[in-house]
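Exercise 7. Given the encoded structure of a 394-residue chain, write a plausible sequence.
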């Protein structure tokens, strides 16, 4: 309830005050970790009428209610549900909206495992997927069919960072009563608020920046009024549940999201500008760079850029790229991102594109810029480029 009065407050204040209700927790700032299945009812009448706030562990508990309330406030949502991973948040949202015979539009640069879900489970359920060029704006309407039920967005795109024209796509979709879902893991609601741009369902891998410490996996689905009932029903029917320890870690991460994102942004921009000037680099994909093809859209809709970017090396051998990455001391090789640490990962978009063509000849390397000192990170990369050049020369 209190969260509602916070809606007009700056996000920074909101992050520290949303769903903080000490009077409900014996004065302790944070909610307790409520572990449990059975919730006791005082008598049969109370059971029959279901008249108490918590009735069964899987449905709700004070720990998860606090996180849902905080996310809803931040997203400007009617309600939020929690899923055990970012991927289950994407798939649950799709299943909530699409059924047998429906058609779904998905950007070509979507997170790979969502694509896999569409090709397997969704196809088996007779949900047909068409991939579209993420750079399409109003042109996406050309792909609408009478049975198109939903448009999925992810901006920037995974690995290749295409920026989508979110308000234009939502406008043309809504004209045809098509639901718009958006994966907003990269920006978080601090840097982009999908629901304000007309999106019906805002999805996040809270595993990434919200958790922020690479120690937890969780997904959130925040809904505008018109999608809330369908999403909460599907979530309930599938029996989705996240344990209270994980919820607590994510709630804790949320409190420091603003300061962490500011540092990720500052360092990523410094490194992106430096990479752009580097002779071993042919292209840098980071929407905050004026050279990025989606920069104007990014500037119009986003309030910031986070710490994930990619770049293409000048033509070089796979061995040279491996030597560059293997020798990095401060960048870890691994999936995911959004934690405090820097990461480096070679990516091949070719295997995951059907509506667009990846024509770069160099190697694509994705970097997550962590919270380390930015000069230390650049020195590490600089040595990496030396290894790349030395091997390429032979
Ligand atoms: C990582 C990621 C996910 C999946 O999150 P998990 O918690 O790893 O399941 C979904 N979407 C995007 C854009 C991601 O980067």
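Solution.
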């Amino acid at each position: 309830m209190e969260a509602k009065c916070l809606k007009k407050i700056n996000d920074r204040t909101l992050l520290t005050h949303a769903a903080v209700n000490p009077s409900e927790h014996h004065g302790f700032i944070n909610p307790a970790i409520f572990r449990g299945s059975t919730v006791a009812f005082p008598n049969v009448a109370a059971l029959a009428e279901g008249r108490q706030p918590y009735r069964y562990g899987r449905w709700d508990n004070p720990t998860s209610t606090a996180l849902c309330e905080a996310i809803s406030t931040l997203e400007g949502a009617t309600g939020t549900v929690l899923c055990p991973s970012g991927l289950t948040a994407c798939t649950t949202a799709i299943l909530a909206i699409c059924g047998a015979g429906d058609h779904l539009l998905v950007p070509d640069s979507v997170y790979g495992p969502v694509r896999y879900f569409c090709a397997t489970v969704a196809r088996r359920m007779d949900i047909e997927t068409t991939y579209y060029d993420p750079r399409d704006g109003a042109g996406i309407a050309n792909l609408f069919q009478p049975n198109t039920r939903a448009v999925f967005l992810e901006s920037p795109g995974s690995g290749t960072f295409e920026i989508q024209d979110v308000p234009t796509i939502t406008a043309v979709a809504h004209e045809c009563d098509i639901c718009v879902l958006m994966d907003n893991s990269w920006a978080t609601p601090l840097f982009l608020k999908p629901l304000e741009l007309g999106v019906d369902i805002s999805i996040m891998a809270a595993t990434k920046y919200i958790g922020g410490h690479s120690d937890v996996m969780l997904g959130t689905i925040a809904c505008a009024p018109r999608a809330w009932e369908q999403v909460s029903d599907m979530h309930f029917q599938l029996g989705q549940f996240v344990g209270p320890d994980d919820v607590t870690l994510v709630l804790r991460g949320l409190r420091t999201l603003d300061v962490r994102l500011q540092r990720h942004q500052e360092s990523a921009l410094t490194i992106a500008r430096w990479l752009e000037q580097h002779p071993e680099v042919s292209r840098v994909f980071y929407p905050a760079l004026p050279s990025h093809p989606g920069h104007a859209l990014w500037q119009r809709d986003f309030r910031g850029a986070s710490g994930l970017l990619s770049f293409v090396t000048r033509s070089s051998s796979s061995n040279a790229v491996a030597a560059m990455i293997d020798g990095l001391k401060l960048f870890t090789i691994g999936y995911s991102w959004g934690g405090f640490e820097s990461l480096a990962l070679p990516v091949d978009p070719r295997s995951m594109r059907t509506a667009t063509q990846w024509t770069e000849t160099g190697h694509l390397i994705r970097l997550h810029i962590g919270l380390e000192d930015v000069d230390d990170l650049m020195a590490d990369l600089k040595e990496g480029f030396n290894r790349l050049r030395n091997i390429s020369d032979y």
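Remark. The chain has a mean pLDDT of 96. Students should compare their own answers with the one above.
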